[in-house]
Design a protein that fits this description.
It is found in: Membrane. Its main location: membrane. One of its GO terms (cellular component) is plasma membrane. GO terms for molecular function: calcium ion binding. Keywords: Calcium, Glycoprotein, Membrane, Repeat, Signal, Transmembrane, Transmembrane helix. By secondary structure, the chain is mainly β. The protein folds into ten domains: 99 residues, Cadherins (Immunoglobulin-like), CATH 2.60.40; 96 residues, Cadherins (Immunoglobulin-like); 96 residues, Immunoglobulin-like (Sandwich), CATH 2.60.40; 94 residues, Immunoglobulin-like; 108 residues, Cadherins (Immunoglobulin-like, Sandwich); 105 residues, Immunoglobulin-like; 98 residues, Immunoglobulin-like (Sandwich); 106 residues, Cadherins (Immunoglobulin-like); and more. It is 5% helix and 41% strand. The chain has five helices and 92 strands. Strands 87, 88, 89, 90, 91 and 92 form a six-stranded antiparallel sheet that branches. A hairpin with a 6-residue loop joins strand 34 and strand 35. Helix 4 crosses helix 5. The N terminus and C terminus are likely disordered.
Length: 1276
């Protein structure tokens, strides 16, 4: 019997186990503290909160919310907190709120909430508040040369240090005699810099922010000078005159200065400095005239002459002014003779026929003549004799004398004159002697300088009494010296002596003047009387005058006040109602004029605002300012007092000290209700929480002393309650059945928080009426909604904060007037509770529609609500209408480069292509979440990184980065930062890089070098162990040093590269090129790799290095280092569901387990994997990382296709399941995903062929311009 054939059918079924949301998310920290600037705008990153969820399906799918006051100003996305202002302008104000205390809650897809984490956001200050000026009074009055009442200026700035420091300046006509003295950063006191004339003035006070960001503050103060007390002075500080040189004739007046404050009889006028020598001054009137004008004229130019008024008795300079004279045209007559006197001695010699002396230089062709009438000859007996006038002649610039015609003549003199200008003359004196040296010596003796009176040859000591502190420029003595033979003034005058450096002498005038004022108290006693020598001429024919100066003490030092203890006069405090005698501050009084036990009698004066509350108590040299018996120190009347203490000695010298006194508040004022009684009416059917009235009590004290809390007493049944802070009185229980004609009385108590606490009470009368009394029988009770109208659309801007009223719904009960609208109750519901719910609420009594959370166009652009109005007395009477709301988009999002792992540093490379511009292989891309036209993005390179020299540029609209000129690059690496802005800025902003700001990104530019470094010095050295495998891929462009690790005890050691072998990769052929890509430093063992290796075929290089002991030349070790030259096309990539920093901690263990799994299958036991460094992976999923790797069979590098076949067959056996401990997600090609499968690595051969084609079309992105938006990867 034939058996029936069996038929079976099978089918593969894939069962996928999905994770459920059964674990609540958890914050990694219980609390977070962040800081953000108050200038931050929407999108500015505040901080990052770390949260974990054990459920795989919830990773990256968590939602966050912030709870607490001010939470609407911030937004959370993926744990990142950012600023969310209602508009595009900054909304954080440190002066209003310096810190936000919030709670953060994370919710997963299953609706499980995390435990809340506390969040503190501190607002950092910026300079956004300008200064404001506050004055102690609005006017200044000056009498008898002092302020009638002290005047102070306080500059307030709401910012904190260092942004609250401002500059203050003064202007107006009163600023010439009033200055502002800073006594602390924000407080200035007015001082008199000079004595003004009686009259009315104005003082302009301007406070400016030094940065110029904020608007200056200005105040104008009226100044009234009631009388004049002035010192002697010139009416003008400077007089000016311009004159042509032709009008400079002797006697012509030039200027008449005006002098005030002293009688003409007591002073004389002098030219103090810079007298050109051709001016003269009337010592009684001060008029300045033209004096003896030089024969050669006056040079054009500007002359500044100092004119002084000097006391005739003491010689003290009282005042000084400047006369500025400008001489124009300067028609100057040139003199022929270089000097006015020519003298010479000739020896009488019978053999001489002629003698001559030079008058003019050889090249001077000026025409001169001998004035024959001026010839005068003297014989040996000193008698005048007549001579032949022809004995004197002039030729070739020389005066010639015929000696034979002058036999009996001892001396002869004559005058010579210029032919064109007879007034231009010179005197010639000739001596004829048998001993000319003796004649010359006698002439020099006769020319010995002499000083004018009171100096005498036999009495050359001149006594001078000089008062201390005599000002600079004061003329102590005028003692000019002259040549008695010619009458000329001696200009070579010197002053010597120990005290000479304090004086100066004018050689032109002989005036000895004070150079540095002398202080009697600071000079040693033995030097208060001293001698100085005034010397004219040269040794041995000089003249000496001894000046004996006695320094006189004057009462010129004001008394000094020093604070005792640690009191700060600018920050004194005193409690209000302090007892009389309470010490405010103490000062020590001293006077330098009264030393060595001598004392002066001082006069004390207290002035200023509130000075009547204090008095001065003097004990020896100590002064105390104490509270007076008549003091009225009340913090509520004046919180700050400005007082001034002036001390004056018997000489009229004074000193003053200003004090700022703050009156400390005490709890001396009880709260006061305003008004004292309150009346209110309530309907018995009003709901719980209805506000009846608001009570208010004010307390004049400050801080806790004036902080009031409210409470209710006589509140039987507790039907009412009061908010302890606001004073709002509400219903606490239903009032049904309490209606009556007689009102209820509640007693409210206001209590301050002072110690001891003070309180006050007020009465609240509440009348409760029946609800039925508000309706009339027979009226229509239907509800009619008239706001919003039918088809009405409410347009609102996004970012409107929570609790903001945006609209009012209005309805009426038919037949009733407006007073019965209180019987209408409103409610609101969302048409689609998922999308429209949670955005708006409504006040059931008023119909006001308000926001429940901040509106966000990006979350919800349109919302439809149903509003309902109901008759509170007849609930069956109801009406409803749709309220459509459209949310308008605003420019409230900043561009973002997306979710970028901060641990990943982007690296781009550029190659040298010759001269000119080289375009970088990089394009930046950022997105703006706003809709057009608010989604513009502009790119800038931040100069605060390393691009101030402009080597790199970026196209602000495309984000393409270029290098201006490759030849200008000096370094192998450049670290740059980019900033994406929503605004088209004129220049890159000067801001620092912030790696937490999504609008900023940092990257490195590597410059390829095509030449091997010729020297090993200065290059980086990286230490590797022996037998290290180095992967040299296409992305490595700089030489890599390798230090051989040997025993230091064997040093010194020489290293030598013996040989290099090469094994080509599976996809390469054997190379016949020289393997000269490597060099070894004989001393250090550093191995250098030529970057040209990147152009060699793929494969493994084995470097055999001998290490020999230097002294014995004995081989110590044979060191081997393998260098894998791998192209991107041979690399693969592992993708992990783990952050890069966590993966790096477990990478070594992962490598060990992977190689162990590979060794299980004998067919692929020779397969090994070389893994690179972990990096963050750009993916739609967050927190992923990747590692690049290549595979080898033995020492042969496998191609991508061979590696995929080997690894996909290996990654499925059971032992490899342990790799999923590391959240291994998938394997993909380097630069493009291979598969999207989550749980398998199986690939068919046809899939491999198709994928390989696709890969060859995509891996070329290295030579193109990858965008970060795609899959540009950092160096592996």
């Amino acid at each position: 019997m034939r058996s029936r054939s069996s038929i079976s059918i099978s089918k593969n079924v894939m069962i996928i186990k999905e994770d459920a949301s059964d674990n609540a998310p958890r914050f990694l920290s219980d609390g977070y503290d962040f800081h953000v600037s108050e200038s931050s705008i929407t999108g500015q990153k505040v901080g990052q909160m770390e949260v974990e969820d054990a459920d795989e399906r919830d990773r990256g799918q968590l939602t966050f919310r912030l709870i607490g006051p001010g939470s609407e100003l911030f937004a959370v996305s993926g744990g990142t907190i950012s600023v969310a202002c209602p508009t595009a302008l900054p909304c954080l104000d440190r002066e209003e709120t310096d810190a936000y205390h919030l709670l953060a809650v994370a919710t997963d897809r299953g609706g499980l909430n995390s435990a809340p984490a506390s969040l503190r956001i501190f607002i950092a200050d910026r300079n956004d508040n300008g200064p404001t000026i506050h004055l102690t009074r609005n006017e200044i009055r000056i009498s008898d040369g002092k302020f009638v009442r002290p005047f102070a200026v306080k500059v307030r700035d709401a910012d904190i240090s260092p942004f609250n420091v401002n500059d203050i300046s003064s202007g107006g006509n009163a600023s010439t005699f009033i200055s502002l003295e800073r006594i602390r950063n924000d407080l200035y006191v007015a001082r008199l810099s000079s004595l003004p004339i009686a009259g009315n003035y104005q003082l302009e006070i301007i406070a400016r922010d030094p940065t110029g960001i904020n608007i200056p503050s200005m105040a104008i103060v009226d100044v009234y000078v009631l009388n004049t007390i002035t010192k002697a002075h010139f009416k003008r500080a400077r007089y000016e005159r311009t004159i042509n040189s032709e009008k400079l004739h002797k006697g012509n007046p030039l200027v008449q200065p005006e002098f005030e404050g002293a009688s003409v009889e007591s002073i004389r006028f002098i030219t103090l400095r810079n007298d050109p020598g051709w001016l003269m001054i009337d010592e009684y009137s001060g008029n300045l005239f033209v004096g003896d004008v030089p024969s050669d004229g006056v040079t054009s130019g500007k002359y500044d002459i100092s004119i002084a008024a000097v006391n005739r008795t003491s010689g003290r300079v009282l005042a000084e002014t400047i006369f500025s004279l400008t001489v124009l045209s300067g028609s100057r007559m040139i003199t022929v003779f270089q000097q006015k006197l020519f003298t010479k001695v000739f020896r009488k010699d019978p053999a001489l026929m002629h003698v001559s002396m030079s008058i003019l230089s050889p090249d001077d062709k000026s025409s001169v003549m001998i004035v024959r009438e001026s010839i005068l000859a003297i014989d040996e007996k000193l008698h005048k004799v007549s001579i032949d006038k022809s004995a004197i002649s002039f030729a070739s610039g020389n005066a010639i004398l015929e000696v034979k015609k002058l036999q009996n003549v001892r001396s002869i003199e004559f005058r010579m004159a210029a032919t064109e200008n007879p007034n231009d003359t010179a005197l010639v004196v000739v001596y004829l002697s048998s001993d000319p040296e003796e004649v010359a010596a006698r002439n020099r003796e006769l020319s010995r300088p002499k000083f004018i009176h009171p100096w005498r040859t036999d009495l050359n000591i001149i006594t001078i009494k000089l008062a201390e502190e005599t000002p600079e420029g004061y003329t102590v003595l005028s003692l000019p010296a002259y040549n008695p033979l010619t009458g000329e003034r001696i200009k070579d005058v010197q002053l010597s002596g120990d005290m000479a450096p304090f004086f100066t002498v004018d050689g032109e005038t002989g005036d000895v003047k004070v150079l540095h004022p002398l202080d009697y108290e600071t000079i040693e006693p033995q030097k208060r009387k001293f001698d100085m020598l005034l010397t004219a001429g040269e040794e041995p024919y000089e003249a000496v005058a001894r000046l004996r100066v006695e320094l006189l003490d004057m009462d010129d030092n004001p008394p000094k006040m020093e604070t005792l203890g640690i009191a700060d006069l600018n920050n004194l405090t005193v409690a209000e109602n302090s007892r009389p005698g309470t010490v405010l501050f103490e000062l020590h009084i001293s006077d330098a004029d009264y030393l060595n036990g001598k004392r002066d009698v001082f006069k004390y004066t207290l002035s200023g605002e509130g000075s009547a509350n204090f008095q001065v108590k003097e004990v020896n040299d100590t002064v105390a300012v104490i509270v007076s018996p008549a003091a009225d120190l009340d913090h509520e009347k004046a919180k700050t007092l400005f007082i001034s203490l002036k001390v004056e000695d018997s000489g009229g010298n004074s000193d003053s000290a200003a004090a700022v006194v703050t009156i400390i508040d005490i709890n001396d004022n009880a709260p006061i209700f305003v008004p004292r009684q309150y009346k209110s009416e309530a309907v018995e059917n009003w709901p719980i929480g209805t506000v009846l009235t608001m009570v208010y009590a004010e307390d004049r004290d400050d801080e806790d002393n004036g902080r009031v809390e409210y409470s209710l007493t006589a509140n039987d049944g507790h039907y009412f309650e009061v908010d302890k802070d606001s004073g709002l009185v509400r219903t606490a229980r239903p009032l049904i059945g309490l209606a009556r004609a007689q009102p209820y009385e509640l007693i409210v108590t206001a209590t301050d928080k002072g110690v001891p606490a003070l309180s006050a009470t007020a009465i609240i009368s509440v009348r409760i009426v029946e609800s039925t009394s508000l309706s009339r029988p027979g009226d229509d009770k239907e509800i009619h909604i008239f706001e919003p109208p039918v088809d009405f659309i409410l347009n609102l801007d996004e970012n409107i904060p929570a609790n903001q009223r945006v609209y009012t719904v209005q309805a009426r009960i038919g037949g009733f007037n407006d007073q019965f609208e209180r019987e209408v109750k409103y409610s609101i519901t969302a048409v689609d509770n998922v999308t429209d719910g949670g955005w708006f609420g409504i006040d059931s009594s008023s119909g006001d529609v308000f926001t429940l959370q901040q509106l966000d166009y990006e979350q919800q652009s349109a919302i439809t609500l149903r509003v309902t109005a109901q008759n509170a007395l007849l609930p069956e009477k109801i009406a409803s209408r749709l309220l459509r709301i459209r949310i308008n988009d605003l420019d409230d999002n900043q561009p973002s480069f997306g979710e970028i792992d901060g641990s990943v540093h982007r690296v781009f490379s550029i190659s040298e292509t010759g001269e000119g511009t080289t375009e970088m292989m990089a394009t930046l891309h950022a997105d703006d979440a706003d809709d057009p036209p608010y989604d513009s993005v502009y790119y800038y390179l931040l100069p605060t990184c390393s691009n101030r020299d402009g080597k790199f540029t970026i196209d602000k609209e495309t984000g393409v980065i270029t290098v201006t000129d490759y030849t200008l690059l000096q370094n192998d690496e450049y670290h740059l930062c980019a900033f994406a802005s929503a605004y088209d800025l004129p220049a890159p902003p000067e801001i620092a890089f912030d790696n937490k700001n999504d609008s900023m990104i940092a990257f490195t530019v590597e410059a390829k070098s095509l030449k091997m470094a010729e020297t090993l010095k200065g290059l980086p050295k990286i230490k590797f162990n022996n037998n290290t495998i180095i992967t040299f891929g296409e992305e490595i462009y700089t030489p890599i040093p390798i230090r051989i690790d040997v025993n230091d005890e064997l040093s010194p050691i020489n290293y030598h590269l013996n040989s290099v072998t090469f094994i080509p990769s599976e996809s390469s052929s054997a190379s016949t090129e020289k393997l000269d890509y490597f060099a070894v430093d004989p001393s250090s063992g550093d191995v250098r790799i030529d970057p040209a290796l990147a152009d060699h075929a793929e494969g493994v290089f084995s470097l055999h290095i001998d290490a020999m002991q230097k002294s014995t030349r004995t081989s110590i070790a044979d060191l081997i280092t393998s260098v894998h030259n791998v192209k991107s096309s041979s690399m693969l990539k592992f993708i992990f569901d783990q952050e890069a920093n966590l993966l790096s901690l477990n990478l070594d263990d992962f490598k060990t387990r992977l190689n162990s799994a590979l060794n299980i299958d004998s067919s692929i036991a020779q397969i090994s994997v070389v893994i690179g460094m972990p990096h963050s992976h750009s993916d739609s999923f967050k927190n992923r990382s990747s590692v690049c790797f290549h595979a080898l069979r033995g020492d042969v590098i496998l191609s991508q296709e061979s590696a995929i076949l080997a690894l996909s067959a290996t990654l499925n056996p059971l032992p490899l399941s342990s790799l999923f401990t590391y959240l291994l997600r998938r394997m993909e090609l380097n630069g493009r995903r291979k598969r999207q499968s989550k749980a398998t690595f199986n690939l068919k051969k046809k899939d491999i062929r198709e994928l390989t084609k696709m890969v060859w079309n995509t891996v070329k992105f290295r030579s193109g311009k990858p965008e970060w938006r795609s899959s540009s990867h950092p160096r592996q």
